[in-house]
Design brief:
With about 70 residues, this protein is mainly β.
Length: about 70
Amino acid sequence: APQGLVISTVGSDVRLDWRPVEDVTYEVWRATTPDGPFATLVGTTADTFMVDIDAFATDEQRFYVVKAVGN
């Protein structure tokens, strides 16, 4: 799994950054409780960051996991 996850906010958006893992793509999943279920796929990317647009448009808390998926 990717390490060094840093989460920052800009307005109602959430930006997630992490350290790279060689030869993978990443899936970013979201839940509304710390233990999941992480059932909402925010997206997939080959980059080491992702922005969850309007994540804080509601007052719900958001929790994230980033998964490395081998190519």
